[in-house]
Amino acid sequence: MHTWHKEAEKQWDERAEWWHQSSEEMWERGSRKTIIPFVTTYMRKDGYIADIGCGDGYGSYKLCEQGYRVIGLDLSSEMIELAKKQRPHEHLHFQQADVMNLPFPDETFAGAMIINCLEWTEQPLAALEEVRRVLKTNAYVCVGILGPTAAPRVNSYRRLYGEAVICNTMMPWEFEQLAKENGFTLIAEEGVYKRGVDGSFLQQLSTELKQAVSFMWLFMLQKK
C-alpha cells in the first residue's frame, strides 16, 4: 500500500496543473456541476466538512460559498499548493493527507465529500473505514464513484497486461454494497451522464441499468 500511494501521490503531483486548467469547467458546467446542489439538499452545516481528495480545492470553495466550514484534504502536495491559491475564506482550510491515514481524532467531522478518490486507493474498504472513523455518528457523506463510461478508467487498463496500476475499477453497485456492509445507510443517489444520453430513456431503466451507463454515480450515505 505504501508503494501504491507513493506512486499515486507522484502521478497526481504531475497532473496537478493539467487538472487545475479544467477544474472550474467541471464544477461549474461539466460533470461535477450537480454535486454541490446534491450535497446541500441533505448535508447540514454544523461543524466542519472534510473534502477528501479535494484536488485543487475548487469544490471545497464552492461548498464554503454555500455556508459550510470546509477542510480540503489531498494526497498530492502540488494539488494542495494550488488549493491554497483559492479565494481566501476564514472557514476554508487545506492540508496534505492520505485517506488511508487521516490526521484527525475519531468523530471529528460533521460530514464529508469524497469525489473520485476511493477508486485511487489500493484498499477501498480500509479507506472507507478510515472515513467512517473521523465522521461523527449520523453524519452524512457524499461519495462520487466513476461509472463504466468514464474515460479515466483507462488508468486501470494496463492491469490486463499484469502491470502495476493505481486505479481500482470499482463499479457503483460494488461500492454501494461495500458501504452498506460496513456501517453506512444509503440515503439518496443520482447519476451523472455523458452528453447525448437521452434523459427520457433513462427514466425507463432500473437503478442498476442507470448506473451501467453512468459517467459518475453520486451516493449520499449516513454513518450508522
Automatic annotation (TrEMBL):
Keywords: Methyltransferase, Transferase. Residues 51-142 form the Methyltransferase type domain. CDD domains: AdoMet_MTases (cd02440). GO terms for molecular function: S-adenosylmethionine-dependent methyltransferase activity. It comes from the Bacteria. One of its GO terms (biological process) is methylation. This is Methyltransferase domain.
